[in-house]
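Please predict the structure of the following assembly.
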Amino acid sequence: MNTFGKIFRLTSFGESHGRGIGGIIDGCPAGLQLDIDLIQKDLSRRRPGQSKITTQRKEPDQVEFLSGVFEGKTQGTPIAFAIWNKDQHSNDYNELKDVFRPSHADYTYMQKYGTRDHRGGGRSSARETIARVVAGAIAKQMLVKAGVSIQAFVSRVGEVELNKPYTELDLSRTEDNMVRCPDAETAEKMIARIEAASKDRDTVGGVITCVAKGVPAGWGEPVFNKLHADLGFAMLGINAVKGFEYGSGFEGTKLSGSQHNDVFINTDKGIRTKTNNSGGIQGGISNGEDIYFKVAFKPIATLLKEQHTVDKNSNEITITPKGRHDPCVLPRAVPIVEAMAALVFADHFLLSKLNSI
Amino acid sequence: MNTFGKIFRLTSFGESHGRGIGGIIDGCPAGLQLDIDLIQKDLSRRRPGQSKITTQRKEPDQVEFLSGVFEGKTQGTPIAFAIWNKDQHSNDYNELKDVFRPSHADYTYMQKYGTRDHRGGGRSSARETIARVVAGAIAKQMLVKAGVSIQAFVSRVGEVELNKPYTELDLSRTEDNMVRCPDAETAEKMIARIEAASKDRDTVGGVITCVAKGVPAGWGEPVFNKLHADLGFAMLGINAVKGFEYGSGFEGTKLSGSQHNDVFINTDKGIRTKTNNSGGIQGGISNGEDIYFKVAFKPIATLLKEQHTVDKNSNEITITPKGRHDPCVLPRAVPIVEAMAALVFADHFLLSKLNSI
Amino acid sequence: MNTFGKIFRLTSFGESHGRGIGGIIDGCPAGLQLDIDLIQKDLSRRRPGQSKITTQRKEPDQVEFLSGVFEGKTQGTPIAFAIWNKDQHSNDYNELKDVFRPSHADYTYMQKYGTRDHRGGGRSSARETIARVVAGAIAKQMLVKAGVSIQAFVSRVGEVELNKPYTELDLSRTEDNMVRCPDAETAEKMIARIEAASKDRDTVGGVITCVAKGVPAGWGEPVFNKLHADLGFAMLGINAVKGFEYGSGFEGTKLSGSQHNDVFINTDKGIRTKTNNSGGIQGGISNGEDIYFKVAFKPIATLLKEQHTVDKNSNEITITPKGRHDPCVLPRAVPIVEAMAALVFADHFLLSKLNSI
Amino acid sequence: MNTFGKIFRLTSFGESHGRGIGGIIDGCPAGLQLDIDLIQKDLSRRRPGQSKITTQRKEPDQVEFLSGVFEGKTQGTPIAFAIWNKDQHSNDYNELKDVFRPSHADYTYMQKYGTRDHRGGGRSSARETIARVVAGAIAKQMLVKAGVSIQAFVSRVGEVELNKPYTELDLSRTEDNMVRCPDAETAEKMIARIEAASKDRDTVGGVITCVAKGVPAGWGEPVFNKLHADLGFAMLGINAVKGFEYGSGFEGTKLSGSQHNDVFINTDKGIRTKTNNSGGIQGGISNGEDIYFKVAFKPIATLLKEQHTVDKNSNEITITPKGRHDPCVLPRAVPIVEAMAALVFADHFLLSKLNSI
């Protein structure tokens, strides 16, 4: 249940206040020369404390590889890795030991397992996504060989929306600002919105858009494992995600079929579609156009305001969490979205080698 | 890849114009007394030709069980079943043999497999969902024993929206009208909207909402197989689905955390939440509240208007499909949404027996 | 649990006295032109009533394909098939309804499921292996393209042993006699042994040897899914199998390492081994030599002699089963062994495409 | 491919000369209080250097848990663990870098992956079984709650055989001697045999017998995942294993059915069988009797005598490996056999909770 993928498979482990977070990647082909710096770079994009609009916790998040890589090259054997936890301040959580924080997983974990590691959310902590970023960064390096690149960016924070289709944006500017929005003007407003939430000891949600370029036609499975179903599954598995849509999405359902259909045309680059309401996927299989989708993130539950709740003895109580909080997870979630997308594409890239005899 | 589920698993088979559609359900516990009429009833809700607003194709869609059921009871062994195809008019498709219809899977299947059964969409036909409805109907019967009921309904057709939260609706009225909207007034408007599309030889999309009641706290997995991720995966695997959201969904991302958090309260029914922005799922695990989600369906691609496209020799051509079409799949998709939800809940019901020692 | 294989996967269904036996093959690549006659030929080799030394039940065992094959070619989609049961004489089993026959699965099924289809063994009947023979016959056709051929034969019946290494036999003579032993003289003795058992209303066991030629070096996984572990799993899943050994097997454990090691030599066909105690597999991975193994079949439990046992109310009783019985399953098990081996090799053939980048 | 089990699943990682060996156990229920000393004890039984008849390498093999255990109790979340490699003398292997040692995995790994970590066998090293011993030791602790105990012992070394059925042995004496044979007299002879091999710089193989007591009736799956098929798969996945048989095994195939069948009787402990040729498993499912099986280990390939072979440039060469070698792996393999059996039983114990509604 803690394994993601069919062929290129990540099994993740770890709690936020245990020994560390890590995973095993099984099914990565042999012979891939890894650029560790690129992996570390994605970890830094996810890292707390990277800018004034994220949580100020300091976590170096240095990955250590434990197996499967020899002289810098993947061996075809399981790639285990860990990011050791440091400076965890577990005692900060002692007073929350018996409390079910609103909209956290405290209550549901206790109901499921009858026990829980209360320190910092335990397994439900978003810190677990580190494992996904590492695996995704390796998947990205494999995908480069297939000509695939993946770029996510923040397209809405609260009500502040980037009102341009991605095709009119220069996605290479995404990393130019701390909120990871490729439009400088909108980025300013987003940052202001996050700072307001921060000052208010509150949180704010939003939307991340992701675009994959270079996926050839023919990836995806016809029935259950449609390419977008696997992408949606991957995204909905990220902490705080509440929705997923691809191509024309929810809005497109208002169009008529004759407006929505993407007409095929013959170009000097082969068969293409004139429009791309399909989001690059038809019948669950890539058609060679850009694949794009949106992911909705709720405002995360950890805030520093007074809140009512109950404890494990069903007493109604009031809590006012102290410490540092993350007013908006979206900037840090950008590499996580990319990583999960990369894992999905890596799987279908490998599966595509088995399509025909 | 044609298997859905971890424990309660459906493997589906069949093409729209082959011998039939069917599947094998593996992992259904022994001793479940099946009510075949209830299964057949869901098939009838999915069946073409059931009302003036669906396609007028006539398919009886009678299920035959081939194994795993003895004297009306499941045996713990694989339950195989088939719905035999009849009256398929495969020759109607001869002229489309070499054509890539816009926004269909014709092109992508050919790119993936290098071959395809062109008759009626082959494996990509929505007729395959029959297998899911049968398996879902069995899952529903098992879930009744766990106190779980699932009800889906059409909440938007094109721009015609049912603007009430589900809590203000009487969901038992859903089957009272042919569009499966529990609000009679809105249903009228939706029917009119579909009839307009039909007359225009066009199609219209929309949204289905689904509510599951009685799911106890503790179902779902913490990391990848979060309950809502499995639900989203299930829904996105249904033909024509473009988006999924649960609880507060995309809209909820505009709230601040303090508005969005669901405060726990102590009631005479135990610990509950005051609001339900979480949609009954926290940290990927059910919390005992109603689970609700929305599924976006695009206007389907099969329409009877003239359209430009290319054929497999890359010639640009014009097609005007003949015959019968389905102006809006939403009414018939309601039992499919319920079936897929039932498969997900059946899986997590069984998994929940393994949570603790 | 009723699925075999990782990539090339067979899910089987059916009971001996239900509607039929069949399965779904998922993961067979598109574009394989099937020779249905070859499939039917293997079914005939498994069929009861084929000679005087097998059970005289008459089952035509004609396969019907339900999906996944179009114009004789695999489509990459699930291949469903069935062999319909005929002339089942289910009432013959009425008097055994409450009886736990010695060394049958009657008792254990009841303990596991709390219910069972008592007619002809239900799911535990060896008739289920029909599904495997069909899937294996398709796997064989795919393997031909990889240069792999698989040949099994009966090497012992009771105490009557074929005392020659397979390398000294002409395996093409296997089908020349009804016991499927490539040595004519030994075959005579085996047939006599089976006829004696038959006359005595008893059964006799023995050993099947299987040889796979043409498996290239590099198939198999290093740790759990070693090629021989997958072969052993496949064989031990066949009804009545009690043991498996490959290469030098149990006898080889008496040698010293210096006697047992297979020395590498350089030949004009590349690197080869001088001896083949390894049975073509080293470290779980094929080395390019012949792969050979042995499978032990117990004398099957169904016999026509008087026997003591208990019924489901724990009464001690005496039964004397009537009707036809199979004095020795080995001749009919030869194609089953080949089929299961083919499924394993098909899986590793496909997996081998994912080894390196 | 590096994952073992369906529900209680071990994914292992590590090479003999990398950072360490370890794994992730997923699917272990919450609430199991772990006795770490018992885990460590099994590691010590597997450890090199434990007696004069094993290799003299010194490896402390101390397990460190990285996640999933909190205050000594399993949390239902993934249990990651590692045994760090120490004192690896990797340079000892430099001269073997380009050599394909006879009957090792050097050649096959290179053929499969096109690359290999040559140091100490890399992933093919038996050192990987440490991960299995840890996971198996946890499985054992869970099985104790189900009343199951597992005991393996050495029953043959070379030609030195323990010629008594296990029912006449006092298995509690197994750990009394360094060869792990419960019969003191035979143990002496086995030790002498191993010492002779050691002096000769050679190796010797043999057989391990394993007995599981207390497995209730009803564990195992009817078709592919028969209980003995899963056991066989588990055993054949252990390094150096060449064969597996259960119950009457290969010898039993010489009996007639009327001799071989186990008659059911009614006792004050319920329904039992008079004999146990079935080895406690009928139709793939446990029947409540003792489960017993035998595992054949070849003499391992690493020996210190001069041998001919080829290198990766196909040059025929002569090697005389230096250092320490393990003349007989059987004593150290006893806990590995038990661990793998425990993993199989743990899986079926959990699966058995899903049998009926």
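The helical segments of chain C are 36-46, 106-113, 129-144, 184-199, 227-236, 249-252, 257-260, 330-351. The longest helix of chain C spans residues 330-351.
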